[in-house]
Design brief:
Largest sheet: 6 strands, antiparallel
Number of helices: 3
Helix content: 10-25%
Radius of gyration: 20 Å
Order of helices and strands: EEEHHEEEEEEEEEEEEEEEEEH
Number of strands: 20
Strand order of the largest sheet: 18-17-16-15-19-20
Shape: globular
Strand content: 25-35%
Distance between the termini: 64 Å
Length: 264
């Protein structure tokens, strides 16, 4: 009988979007308890070793982190399995590099470099909005932050712009038709588009209909939608595919064109 929380994760049980190979060991790094769920996060060791290739093995990752060189959302993190997640800012001051964790259209976290200026803030989706002890209003964001006395206009599903230095809300975007959203779950993960309508289903899941820049329509659950900009302007920089999902045929044509260009 199991006593207490599991401390290991088998390699084959690791989330597919970490893209770990099957045969390099029996185990995968198990994310620590933290602001993001185990299946929706990327441990720091996977980011530094497997994505950035700044270390060859776990020992080297630990020696980098123990020098207090890596910050997540402006705070030094020394835990190699710390769970970083959607829209977190990872900063390495020594090399003056800043990254924002954001999905590509295949639902994987991409290495997305940003400027130092953009690394000073992040967006957070409002998960809860209620009154606490003593009648104090507060909101809880998707990354586990609690902010007291928010603007009374901020409601659940809106996005707030958070200054990472102070932790204060500097601006917010309402969840409404016509605003730009990114899909953070389901089959359309990583796609970016404008909300065209929202269907209410009492006792079921509300469905949001989205149109991307190629005029393609798709629908997903409300819980999978994250507002990232008003009208057509994103408040954060997007990865190179700009959240536009191509069909398999379009991907093939793009590959062939690139190959022809390289050989020419």
């Amino acid at each position: 009988m199991a006593r207490g929380p599991k401390k290991h994760m088998k390699r084959l049980a690791a989330p597919k979007h970490w893209m770990l190979d099957k045969l390099t060991g029996t185990y995968a790094p198990k994310p620590s308890a933290g602001p993001h769920k185990q299946r929706e996060c990327l441990p720091l060791i996977v980011f530094l070793r497997n994505r950035l290739k700044y270390a060859l093995n776990g020992r080297e990752v630990r020696s980098i982190l123990m020098q207090r060189l890596v910050k997540v959302d402006g705070k030094v993190r020394t835990d190699s399995t710390y769970p970083t997640g959607f829209l977190d800012v990872i900063s390495i001051d020594k090399t003056d590099e800043h990254f924002r964790l954001i999905y590509d259209t295949k639902g994987r976290f991409t290495v997305h470099r940003i400027t130092a200026e953009e690394g000073k803030f992040k967006l957070g989706k409002v998960r809860r909005c209620q009154l606490g002890a003593g009648g104090i209003p507060y909101i809880v964001t998707h990354d586990g932050r609690t902010v007291r006395y928010p603007d009374p206009l901020i409601k659940v599903n809106d996005s707030v712009k958070i200054d990472l230095e102070t932790g204060k809300i500097v601006d917010f975007i309402k969840f409404e038709v016509g605003n730009l959203v990114m899909v953070t779950g389901g089959r359309n993960m990583g796609r970016v588009g404008v909300v065209t309508r929202r269907d209410h289903h009492h006792g079921g899941f509300d469905i949001v209909h989205v149109k991307d820049a190629n005029e393609r329509l798709f629908a997903t659950r409300l819980s999978n939608v994250f507002v990232i900009g008003d009208s057509n302007e994103p408040w954060i920089s997007l990865p190179k595919d700009k959240g536009l999902k191509l069909t398999i045929a379009e991907e093939r044509d793009a590959r062939r064109a690139k190959a022809a260009e390289a050989s020419a």
